Amino acid sequence: MVRLNFSRRYSMAHRLLHDASSKCLTPHGHDEVVTIGLRPLRPMALGGGNMSASFAQAKGAWHAWIDGWVDHALQLNADDPLLGYFQREEPQQLSRIVVFRGDPTTEALAIAFFQKLSAMLAVEGLFAVEELSVQETPTNAVTVNAADMNALGGWSPGGWATRPDSSLNDLLPADAWSRL
């Protein structure tokens, strides 16, 4: 079977509260690359267009979300005191903060991205996510596939990850994301 693969680069910042001996306790940033593998849900039309759907269809909403919302966003644990600061002092920035149940590790991010992309693709019904990889540094990456996601038993870093909208957290009402 033919599989479509493509990548997108973005910058992000995060900190990990539960790894106190790590450099990741201090807020810091990474330039990351997310690479996805999509499985077409309909047969490839051979002889004419020679594709099941165009790359533009496959990556349009995903790239718009990465570029418009994820790039230069701050990733925080829902228990991080910095989140309270933003809620009190800079509420206009809440749409730029990705909030996780637990620390925003690369593992949790890969799961969130897999869920978000799956929700986005379900709207059109053209593709399913087969595999997703987040390369945090030139030497570190996390990859999840459909079997890995099934083994999680429905765990999600937040309800936002399972919605096909542009949300990054559950701090704003779900319908607010369409107005931003």
Question: What labels describe this entry?
Answer:
alpha/beta; about 30% strand; six-stranded mixed sheet; about 180 residues
Give the CATH topology. Answer: Tetrahydropterin Synthase, Chain A
Secondary-structure content class: alpha/beta
Overall mean pLDDT stands at: 90
User: What are the low-pLDDT stretches, counting only 5+ consecutive residues below 50?
Assistant: none
Structure description:
The protein is an alpha/beta fold and 180 residues long. It has one domain (4-179): 2-Layer Sandwich (Tetrahydropterin Synthase, Chain A). The chain is built from four helices and six strands. A six-stranded mixed β-sheet has the order 4-3-1-2-5-6. β3 (73-77), α2 and β4 form a beta-alpha-beta unit.
List the helices and strands and how they pair.
Layout lengths: L3 E11 L13 E13 L14 H16 L2 E5 L3 H9 L7 E4 L5 H19 L2 E11 L2 E6 H6 L29
Parallel strand pairs: 1-3, 3-4
Antiparallel strand pairs: 1-2, 2-5, 5-6
Provide a quick synopsis of the model.
This protein has helices at 55-70, 81-89, 106-124, 146-151, and strands spanning 4-14, 28-40, 73-77, 97-100, 127-137, 140-145.
